[in-house]
Amino acid sequence: MAAVCQVTGAVPGFGHSISFSHRRNKRRFDPNVQRKTYYVPSLRRKVTINVSARGIKVIDARGIDAVVRDILARGEKI
Fold it and tell me: Pick from 13, 54, 73, 77: most CB atoms within 10 A?
């Protein structure tokens, strides 16, 4: 599963992990992406989306219907 949130568009960040001796190694900061299933009343079916923890809060605030409408308007498949 790709580490991309379908609601907020959060993608991995890149940087360095720095040891005590200050050596730098490449690393990746992945968003907290989870696969969640929601029932969407306007579609009359369940949809499964990859959503980050912040995306879950957006769904709670705006409602699943509005969020799914935005995802479909972008042309993403649900």
Answer: 54
